[in-house]
Amino acid sequence: MGRQPVPVITVDGPSGAGKGTLSHLLAEALGWHFLDSGALYRVTGHACVLEGVAWDDHTAVAAVARHLDVVFALDAAGEVRVAYKGKDVSRAIRTEEGGRGASTVAVIPAVREALLERQREFCQAPGLVADGRDMGTVVFPRASLKIFLTASAEERARRRYRQLLDKGENVSLPRLLEDIEERDARDSSRSVSPLVPAEDAIVIDSSCLPIGDVFSAVMEAARERGLV
């Protein structure tokens, strides 16, 4: 299998492993485009709530995904802002409810099919860093470098707990752990695009690693492949 004409680095893994932070660092360091594929599923789940569509109504959810009116843009601080039908939903889709919605609608094959080409449209010169769960296995199987970033469920729950506390939200650590374990089970057992490392992915466990060390390791791998 040949390589992607435009270089792509995929960063896959479960929720809370640090994919988003790592992907942002890589995109900034390389001057490449960035795809947060999870945001597309989060927007789909949130759009269903706004449109009165139940997450278990697979036909209706797939229709929402096919006609998703979503725009991504960088704000003055360099943060990715997400708008649905012209309204900023960046904060709404990043809640725990937003995560549950994303994980729930992501198991629907027709939803994944509807969003596949939209994700591939992000692949533009000079390169792309793609963050998700099936970037290296399904969306960009010819990627130049594939990373699978993981961490223990307990550590990922602690990280999320600290993030939400910093935002002033009242959260329960045991409940967060339960949500993460349920999400992991859905993501890894779904029939279409399950959460698994690509055969040629570099697997990194970040449970005890600072993000700076993870970033350095991935950049070294990128240098070895001539991407830097």
Overall shape: globular
> In percent, how helical is the residue content?
40-55%
CATH superfamily: P-loop containing nucleotide triphosphate hydrolases
Q: What is the mean predicted local confidence, pLDDT? A: 91
Helix and strand element order: EHEHHEEEHHEHEHHEH
- The chain-level structural class is alpha/beta
- Measured by DSSP, the beta-strand proportion falls in 15-25%
Number of helices: 9
- Biggest β-sheet: strands ordered side by side in the sheet: 2-6-1-7-8
Q: Could you write a compact summary of the structure shown?
A:
This protein has 228 residues and is of the alpha/beta class.
Q: Any chance you could write out the topology, listing elements then pairs?
A:
Blueprint: E1 8-12, H1 19-30, E2 33-36, H2 37-51, H3 58-66, E3 70-74, E4 80-84, E5 87-88, H4 96-105, H5 109-120, E6 128-132, H6 135-139, E7 145-150, H7 153-166, H8 173-189, E8 202-205, H9 211-224
Helix pairs in contact: 1-9, 2-4, 3-5, 4-8, 7-8
